[in-house]
Structure formats: C-alpha cells, structure tokens
Design brief:
Layout lengths: L1 H39 L16 H11 L10 H20 L15 H11 L1 H10 L3 H32 L4 H7 L4 H4 L1 H14 L11 H4 L9 H26 L8 H26 L5 H30 L1
C-alpha cells in the first residue's frame, strides 16, 4: 500500500513538473524571440508592459487572445475544427516528458525514447492537416497540403540523422546516447547535426521554411480561420516545438548534461545548450528569406537526404572498425 502511494506521488510530481516546464519554456522562447529579433533588426519592440524591457508583453498577448471572440466558420467541420489545436499542441507535451535533462531529471525514461520522441512529434502535423481540411477555406487547405508535403520531405533526413547518433552510441535511449557522448562527436557527427537542425526548422514551419503559412501567398495557411484562444494554441505549439527540438538537439549532439559540475548542475547544462539552439532557430528567421516550394523540395531530397545517408554510412564504418 505504501509503495503504491509513493509511486502515485512520484508520477504526479513528474507530470506536474513536465506541465510546468511546458507552460514556462515556450513563453521564455517567445519572449527571447521578440527581443532577439528586435535587437537584430535595430528596433525596440514592446518596452513598457511589465516595466522592464517589456517582459510582460507575452502575458498581455495571452490576455488579449483569451478576450477575443472564438469564431467557427459556418461551413466548417465544427468538431474537427475545434479539436485541431489540441492535436497540434499535445504531442509536444508528450515528447517533452521523454527528454532527459540529466540522468535523474526525466519524467519518463523510456528504453527507445529517441524513436518515441520522433514518432510523437510527427503526430503534430495532423493538427495542421485537420485545421486546413475543416476550415472550408481554400487558403487553409493549400497551407495544410504544403505542411504535409514539407513533413514528408524532411522527416526522412531527420530520422536518418538521429539513426546515425543512435548507431554511434549503441542505444535508442536518449539517456544512453547522452551517457555515451564524447566531445569527438562535435566533429564526427557535425554533418548529421546540420541535417537535423535544418530538418527540425522545416518541420516546425519556421522561416525560411514557412511556406505553409506564407502571409503574402495564402494569408496564414491552415490557421487563417482561427481566432482567439484556439489560434493562440497553434502559436504555442510552434514555440513548444522549438523547445522540444532544441532540447533534443542538445541531448543528441551536445552531450546534454555534460559540463562542469554535471552531477549537480547537469539539468542546467541541458537547458542552457537547448536555449542556445533556440536562439539559432530565432536567428535563422531574421537572417534568411523564405524559400520557394521547389527550393524546399530540392534542398530536402538532393542535399539533406544524401548528406544524412553519408553520415549514417560513415558512422557504420566507424562502429565496425572500432568494435
């Protein structure tokens, strides 16, 4: 009986911790994006909300979204339309639970957590497809079709890049991969790291791969008909995706919790490394113009897939020769 109560308390605390991180980290990334973009483009941006550098602007935006009217188009498939934001958001919450911040700080230490995270994050695209199909809007449908084509193109190089790291570590567990990590991987797995980062940005539909929500072409893609809190959920899913992909990159390619005083501050090292990758994702939005659809597909199939296959082959040769 005592063990059952203890297990229940532990599971509850882990779930609350993941939920707290899921609510705080995306907002931190969003605030960082506002300020980093403002300074990179030589403009101040919101400076007054909260009294110091506009720190409460995102809170004000959240209040604004809550107050806006929730409109469902008359011709829409109402059930699918209303359910789509949750389908886009929840997979990142589930994925975050399987990413270890340190050997002891992980909500669900799964034996094949690398595969689990990739599989779960791929489900998020269903929310975009549902939103585009259910909106009864041609721009929404075009955006959803673009998003689907983009996912199919960039999921393959991402999986191949992760497979290379798993092969090098001899484990499908993220904790096992981080434990087997060596500084030599910074050079050895560099091509795969570049492939993973580019593919992650594309899967998140972030600039320069934001063709599914290209405002100058298709209004706002699959999210055109959304208002209020449901629209905010789609925006939150984007920032949650940045958090998940950045932490996953930190664990796979930067050693996760490896650093000074890793026994005590390992979780902090993982968060700091993930934050640096999130800043890189933000920088890409500022620095690169939007690609065309044909350039998007050409980059995926003619550059990233061959590069990922070459990295996987190189890793296989290394593993066999050093066994």
């Amino acid at each position: 009986m005592g063990a059952t109560v203890s297990d229940t308390v532990e599971v509850t605390l882990r779930a609350v911790g993941v939920l707290a991180a899921f609510l705080v980290l995306p907002l931190l990334v969003g605030q960082t994006e506002h300020k980093v973009m403002a300074h990179m483009q030589g403009r101040l941006g919101p400076m007054y909300a909260g009294g110091f550098h506009g720190w409460a602007q995102l809170v004000a935006d959240g209040v604004k979204f809550v107050q806006k009217e929730d409109i469902t188009p008359a011709a829409a498939d109402k059930r699918v339309f209303r359910f789509a934001p949750a389908v886009a958001l929840v997979p990142y919450l589930v994925a975050l639970a399987a990413i270890p911040l340190s050997p002891d700080v992980v909500a669900a230490d799964l034996p094949a957590s690398a595969v689990f995270v990739l599989a779960v994050t791929a489900v998020g695209i269903l929310g975009t497809l549902m939103a585009g199909w259910a909106s009864a809007n041609k721009y929404s449908l075009l955006g959803a079709m673009r998003a689907a084509a983009q996912l199919l193109s960039y999921e393959l190089p991402m999986v191949l890049a992760v497979a290379s790291v798993c092969l090098a570590a001899g484990s499908l567990s993220l904790s096992g991969i981080a434990a087997a990590w060596s500084p030599w991987w910074l050079i050895f797995q560099l091509p795969g790291a570049i492939v993973f980062l580019v593919a992650a940005v594309a899967e998140l539909q972030r600039p320069p791969f934001d063709m599914p929500v290209a405002d100058s072409e298709i209004v706002f893609g699959a999210y055109t008909e959304y208002t209020g809190l449901r629209f905010a959920f789609f925006l939150l899913s984007e920032y949650a995706g940045i958090v998940v992909m950045s932490l996953l990159f930190a664990v796979l390619y930067l050693g996760g919790w490896h650093g000074l005083l890793s026994d005590q501050l390992g979780w902090l090292w993982t968060l700091l490394k993930g934050f640096c990758i999130a800043v890189v994702v933000i920088w890409l939005r500022v620095a690169w113009p939007r690609l065309r659809e044909d350039q998007l597909q050409r980059l995926a199939w003619l550059v990233l897939v061959p590069l990922a296959l070459a990295q996987l082959a190189l890793t296989g040769v290394w593993v066999v020769t050093t066994a």
